[in-house]
Design a protein that fits this description.
By secondary structure, this protein is an all-alpha fold. The chain contains 4 helices and no strands. The chain is elongated and about 50 Å long.
Amino acid sequence: MQEKITKLPEEAKLKLKLPNSYYEKGIARGIEKIVTEMLKNGLSAKYISELTNISEEKVKEIQSKNEV
């Protein structure tokens, strides 16, 4: 199968990447939802960052986006 994929034109290879972008967006939304719930339960941005390995800045960005 990999052999067939390498022989595809560039346009077809780009189409193969599309489902992955949806997958990645879903993962990002899930992480955002979890961080939001953690913030609602009173956990600090610093503690969430330590638990999840997400930067504290990203946690604060999610916090301000969702007005938690």
